[in-house]
Amino acid sequence: MTIGIRKVARPREMTFPESLYLVEIVKGLGVTMGHMLRNIVRQEGIMTMEYPEVRRRMPPRFRGRHRLMRRPDGSPRCVACYCCATACPAKCITIVAGESPDPAVEKYPVRFDIDMLRCVFCGLCVEACPCDAIRMDTGWFTPPDDSREKLIFTIDVLLEK
Amino acid sequence: MPSLTIDGKAVDVPVGTTIINAAEKIGIEIPRYCYHKHLSVAGNCRMCLVEVEKFPKLQTACSTVVTDGMVVRTDTEKVRKAVTGVLEFLLINHPIDCPICDQAGECELQNYYMKFGLHKSRFALEDKVRKKKVQDIGGQIVLDAERCILCSRCVRFLEEVTGTRELQFFRRGDHSEISVFPGRPLNNNYTGNLADICPVGALTSKDFRFKCRVWFLKAFPSVCTGCARGCNVEAFFKGDILYRYKPRVNEAVNRAWMCDFGRLEYKKANNARLLVPFVREDGREKMMSWGGLLPQVAYRLKDAVEREGPDAAAVIASPQSSNEELYLVRRIASDLLGTKNLAFTSRVPGDGFSDGFLIRGDKNPNSRGAQLLRIPGGPAFDELVVKIAAGKVRALLLFGDVLGDLTQEETAGLLSMVPFVAQAGTNEGPVSAVATAVLPIASVAERGGTFTNHAGRVQRFHAGFPPRGKAKDTIGFLTSLANRLGAGWAFDGEASVFRALAATEGPFAGMSYESIGSLGQEAKG
Ligand code: SF4
Ligand code: SF4
Ligand code: SF4
Ligand code: SF4
Ligand code: FES
Q1: Phi then psi for B183, rounded to 5 degrees?
Q2: What dotted CATH number matches B278-454+464-493?
Q3: Are B231 and B247 in contact (CB under 8 A)?
Q4: Interval B12-68: pLDDT, tens
């Protein structure tokens, strides 16, 4: 492949009235005032959203913060098969499997951590899961926090939602 | 020698060879479940069906002996269809537990399904015959009867190898299941092998259970350090943690097996490791750097020799060390310190259990190597202990984590007679609890070298990953110590030491890492 060269037009010189700025400032203020007045009269048309009180409705396939699903009896549906951890390109899922007291379950995750700082929200973990135990349908972004540790979501946090 | 063609390729094999082995010789792998190279032929799984010209029906490759001029085809549509059919039958009642099955990733059902099956199940889930899962049947084994494909490898192993016959098939038809007799769990020292030979996840290891998925593990060839047999093993690790040993086939040593004690030997490389050099001053431990501690060790040894004569210094070698390390240790003691106080012992605490099969009474991998390298053992060790107890030794360099079969108290009592004890060891133990200076060295998974087994077979073990913590490769440590004692050695890794060793030590003459290869070579004498 060869790289083509494109000529980009330089900004033209300012005309004399423009270089005085005065007219342009008045024009700009006009736009601002116009918006302000319109927002006062017609509030439903405001574009800005008052996050986090008000949230945007995400499309159904939006990949948001993960959650782990539960069985009807409340125990985690995850069987610690490591498929998600294997598929994860960011290597951000840490699982420690254990022997479940319920012989019908056998294997369950003692630990299940997702490092949200490393997650790239690709959704491959969800694709990989044979048990539909992990989903990204919360419609949530990862909220900001003040330490790295708090952004490593543990199994309790993931089971909450 | 009958000659035959398999898939158009000609091959000559000895009389009595079966088709499956003849095919293996020319690199054609015929699928199999019940056939195992080290067990008798059962011919019950029907996975190995092949087409043989002039035979009206498909033949089982594992039990059909070749004849001259035979024409075998393994790749025809007829064979493929038959194998797919067999696989479908085997999977009818299979629980497809892969997400919670430890065998997943090294399961022959999974592998052959991807190769020959890829069918949708025609059997409704609720029609499957359920059997008992998660059964602790003793030894190192967990049984899941549902996953069993009734290949009888385990039954034959317990009949032909251990002779203990604990497992048997019960009931008929699709209710057939493998189990132990009531009240008679597995009771032999080789149960771990069952998890290896079971081609599916019916028999899995209790120890490895749920620890790690096998596809995360990497393996390297090693030698078990559990006894003087030196079973060849494959060591599996992730990061700097060993997860399991599996036997590596060596017909001359362990065939395809290893004992249950040896199988757990890997834990020593993980747990209770010595990872930082330290000195003990007035009962308190003080962390040191290698740079700070090594000169001190060299100085104390030299000082004892200079002040009170060479026999005020002593070196206790360890049969857990490699040939290379023992050779350097001997040269340090005899050539550099000039002391006659050099000895080792093969004794360890415990009963020294042995059987006529693999397990040896000597629980060290390299006692024979120490003997061949002319390090005095047996009575020499006892004499040295007497000398130490009499307070005649002023500085002691000690290898290993235990002092023969002495108890913790006896070790502490004996070593308190020596003003300076430097230990080069891998694990915490009675010696590291009292030594004046502790030098942490690499475990068997972190360094390379050779062991000489009880029969004089020299076998290589390899480093899988770099030493953990501040532990140091023994060869590097011995070389710097020797150089501080005025040696001027330029050894760089175990290979260079082995070359020097082979050049001067009679029993190892003419040997090299190449000639030892992966299966070992007998030393002379
Ligand atoms: S969304 Fe992607 S990066 Fe994040 S945990 Fe799942 S697989 Fe890993
Ligand atoms: S893939 Fe699903 S069942 Fe398996 S460990 Fe991940 S969340 Fe659990
Ligand atoms: S035995 Fe093999 S196929 Fe069966 S559940 Fe285990 S891994 Fe899956
Ligand atoms: S338990 Fe394993 S080795 Fe034994 S018969 Fe069943 S599948 Fe074969
Ligand atoms: S391998 Fe031949 S019948 Fe099982």
Answers
A1: 75, 5
A2: 3.40.50.740
A3: yes
A4: 999 999 999 999 999 999 999 999 999 999 999 999 999 999 999 999 999 999 999
Q: Does the beta carbon of B178 lie inside 6 Å of ligand 4?
A: yes
Distance separating the N- and C-terminal Cα atoms of chain A = 49
| Residue to substitute in A67, A68, A75, A79 for testing ligand 2 pocket (most ligand atoms within 8 angstroms of CB) | A79
How many Å apart are CA B396 and CA B406, to the nearest integer? 17
The pTM of the full predicted model, rounded to 2 decimals, is 0.90
Cα-to-centroid distance, A63 and ligand 1 (Å): 10
Cβ-based neighbours of B11, under 8 Å, separated by 6 or more: B3, B4, B5, B22, B25, B26
CA distance, residue A158 to nearest chain B CA (Å): 20
> Nearest to residue B419, comparing CAs of B390, B393, B384, B387?
B393
Q: In this structure, are residues B394 and B312 in contact, taking their beta carbons and an 8 Å threshold? A: yes
Q: Which of A83, A98, A131 is closest, CB to CB, to B210? A: A98
Q: Where are the beta strands (DSSP E) in B332-473?
A: 342-343, 395-399, 420-425, 437-440, 449-452, 457-461
Q: Of ligand 1's atoms, which has the minimum distance to the CA of residue A124? A: 7
Ligand 2 pocket check for A114: Cβ under 6 Å:
no
Q: CB distance B98–A130 less than 8 Å?
A: yes
One-letter amino acid of A74: G
Q: How far apart are CA B182 and CA B178, in angstroms?
A: 12
Q: Whose CA is nearest to atom 3 of ligand 4?
A: B198
Strand ranges (E), B202-357: 203-205, 218-223, 232-238, 241-247, 278-281, 284-287, 313-316, 342-343
Per-residue model confidence as pLDDT tens digits over B92-149:
999 999 999 999 999 999 999 999 988 888 888 888 999 999 999 999 999 999 999 9
ipTM tops the 0.90 cut: no
- Residues in chain B within 8 Å Cβ distance of A79: 99-100
What's the CA-to-centroid distance between A155 and ligand 3, angstroms? 27
B128: Cα separation from own chain's centroid: 39
Considering every ligand atom shown, identify the ligand nearest to the alpha carbon of residue B150 and give its number: 4
Q: How do the domains of chain B map onto residue ranges?
A: 3-90, 278-454+464-493
* Cα A114 to ligand 2 centroid, rounded to whole Å: 12
The CATH label, of 3.40.50.300, 3.10.20.740, 3.10.580.10, 3.40.640.10, for the domain at B3-90 is: 3.10.20.740
Do the Cβ atoms of B134 and B142 come closer than 8 Å?
yes
Q: Is A101 on the interface with B (CB under 8 A)?
A: no
Distance, CA of B58 to CA of B52 (rounded, Å) = 7
**Pairing status of strand B278-281 against strand B177-180:** unpaired
> Which numbered atom of ligand 2 lies nearest the CA of A87?
1
- A82 interfacial to chain B (CB closer than 8 Å): yes
Cα B39 from Cα B156, distance rounded (Å):
7
Q: Are B481 and B297 in contact (CB under 8 A)?
A: yes
Q: Does ligand 4 come within 6 angstroms of the Cβ of B195?
A: no
CB pairs under 8 A between A and B: 30
